[in-house]
Write a structure and sequence with these properties.
Elements lengths: L2 H16 L3 H13 L4 H29 L1 H24 L16 H13 L2 H10 L10 H25 L1 H29 L4
Helix pairs in contact: 1-7, 1-8, 2-3, 2-5, 2-7, 3-4, 3-5, 3-6, 3-7, 4-6, 4-8
Length: 202
């Protein structure tokens, strides 16, 4: 992966991670209920699940690319269209709001990890999303395993940092999302539309 491609993937990953989704919502909820330190278990589970889904998508895509390079072009076009559609959906979606937590009972770290992992690994939208996104950055000439290590590590670090920030600031973020959440969704939706339209043309 070239530095320019990695940098573009880094920026795209940051935009994805900043968009509140099921894992961010769960991290915020557990941050509000159990504190940001215990929410680390939730976040680690969610990141592990997301990287597992990334690997499943990438190596499945890699098998198709080895059959014919035309598959990669086709996947880029279909994936770009899906990202545009996802951006339009996000643009129109209501803001995500997390309810304030009361006195929550202590929960084991393993249970929080499992909750985060299953939220990420069983979300079919994640499978569709990464299947659409990853072909935009894959090179048929480079090692698939090497590309997965770079992209997986990059996404994991960014996702972990963003989810931790949301969890640590759960009480402060809730009123902010309620106040500007719709505008935030429109900005992120516009970014996805732009990515979906531009990346297949590279």
């Amino acid at each position: 992966m070239s530095f320019e491609t990695w940098l573009l993937f880094l920026l795209t990953s940051a935009g994805i991670a900043l968009t509140p989704g099921p894992n961010v919502l769960l991290a915020m909820t557990h941050g509000a209920l159990h504190g940001n330190r215990r929410a680390l278990w939730t976040i680690m589970g969610g990141v592990t699940g997301l990287v597992a889904v990334m690997g499943l998508c990438m190596f499945g895509i890699g098998a198709l690319v080895r059959t014919s390079a035309l598959w990669l072009t086709g996947l880029k076009l279909v994936g770009g269209a899906y990202l545009v559609w996802l951006g339009i959906r996000l643009w129109a979606s209501p803001p995500i709001v997390v309810a304030a937590g009361g006195g929550a009972a202590a929960v084991r770290g393993a249970a929080l990890f499992r909750s985060g992992f299953l939220t990420a690994a069983t979300n079919p939208k994640g499978l569709l999303f990464f299947s659409a996104l990853l072909p935009q950055f894959l090179s048929a000439e480079r090692s698939l395993a090497g590309q997965f290590l770079v992209m997986g590590a990059t996404y994991a670090v960014i996702e972990f940092a963003v989810e931790y920030l949301y969890a640590a600031a759960a009480h402060r973020v809730r009123p902010w999302l309620a106040r500007v959440g719709r505008r935030f969704n429109r900005v992120c939706g516009g970014i996805f539309v732009a990515i979906g339209a531009a990346l297949p043309l590279r």
